[in-house]
Design a protein that fits this description.
mainly beta; 6-stranded mixed β-sheet; 4-stranded antiparallel β-sheet; 0% helix
Length: 113
């Protein structure tokens, strides 16, 4: 099982980024996928989740209305569109398949002027 996250970077407050995570080693379409993030000195927190069939989505209150999770089962990829970014969104972002207990290397997002 492997996850390769990409798309992070340095962005000004109010800006946007689109994160991607390519998964391999398991049947991607069978799993609920999530994005987590971990800021320095803080615990890892759940940001967004998308189910595998209906593609129902849920979000942390802190990102609701600004972030959108989506998936392409044909490409084994999950995305996180992040708009109206704030300094408190600064963190390493990880994708995760619920039930597999495997983490990728993450991608750093820094929101700063």
């Amino acid at each position: 099982v492997q996850f390769v996250e990409s798309g992070g970077g340095l962005v000004q407050p109010g800006g946007s980024l689109r994160l991607s995570c390519v998964a391999s080693g398991f049947t991607f379409s069978s799993y609920v996928m999530s994005w987590y993030r971990q800021a320095p000195g803080k615990e890892r927190e759940l940001v967004a989740t998308i189910t595998n069939i209906r593609r129902s989505t849920t979000y942390a209150d802190s990102v609701k209305g600004r972030f959108t999770i989506s998936r392409d089962n044909g490409k084994n990829t999950v995305y996180l569109q992040m708009n109206s970014l704030k300094p408190e969104d600064t963190a390493v972002y990880y994708c995760y398949a619920q039930g597999l207990s495997v983490w990728g290397q993450g991608t750093q997002v820094t929101v700063s002027s």
